[in-house]
Amino acid sequence: MHKKSSTFAPEIEKRYSMAHRHQHTSSVGILGLCIGLNLLFVAVEAVVGWFSNSSGLLSDAGHNLSDVLGLVLSLVAILLARKGSMNAQRVSLRVTLANGLLLLLTIGLIVADGVAQILYPKEVNSSAIILTAGIGIAINGLTAWALTRGGEQDLNIRAAFLHAATDTLVSIGVVAAGVVIYFTGWAVLDPIVSIIISVVILIPTVRLLKDTIANYKNAQ
């Protein structure tokens, strides 16, 4: 009995290791696809937002870009974990810190643009807002669905899923603002929505930076 057990245990460990590597490979592929898809949409949304004078679309593009960076961070963390890097935690924390600082810069630019549009209103193309943000709902929803295929046990994938789900809700808010503007002509609602989105992004960003700095100090 003892001899069978000693040969059986390595086989179980081998199968577990193979399954674990397969899960990481699957997660990497899914994250890569989601990153590419969302980067393409961010570019389209930013261009449409610029030419349609929609700070709401621009703020949503900034939000989506921040979450793309979050997806990249998840991908880096998975790759480092797969290689067994001793510096995985420090590298991950540095990337997170850079991500948070870039977010703060993006938020500042969005708020400044929103305030400028409130003070000096511009004509807004509500149809472009509705159409583009509607596409955003579809892409973010698809991203969230794809991430659920990446394995519920992977914390990086679960975090990325929450980002995608949040993006979907933000895009819904932009669409709603576009519909109201279309029927009422209240163009001022667009920059107001962009500032609200910025505040929504700011709260978790500040928390992220605080936690990252605290963890980085502990890692020294």
Written account of the structure:
This protein is mainly alpha-helical. Helices cover 89% and strands 0% of the residues. The protein contains six helices and no strands. Helix 2 (55-83) runs antiparallel to helix 3 and helix 5 (155-184) packs antiparallel against helix 6 (189-219). It is globular, with a radius of gyration of 21 Å. The model is unreliable at 1-23 (pLDDT under 50).
Unreliable stretches covering 5 or more consecutive residues: 1-23
SSE run? HHHHHH
User: What's the count of strands?
Assistant: 0
* Largest sheet data: none
| Relative helix content | over 70%
The number of helices is: 6
* Radius of gyration, in angstroms, nearest whole number: 21 Å
Strand content: under 5%
Distance between the termini: 48 Å
**Quick one: overall form?**
globular
Arithmetic mean pLDDT: 75
Tell me the structural class: mainly alpha
Summarize, please:
The chain is mostly helical.
Can you give keywords for this protein?
220 residues; mainly alpha; 6 helices; 0% strand; globular; disordered N terminus
Write the layout of secondary structure elements.
Blueprint: H1 2-51, H2 55-83, H3 88-119, H4 126-148, H5 155-184, H6 189-219
Helix pairs in contact: 1-2, 1-4, 2-3, 2-5, 2-6, 3-6, 4-5, 5-6
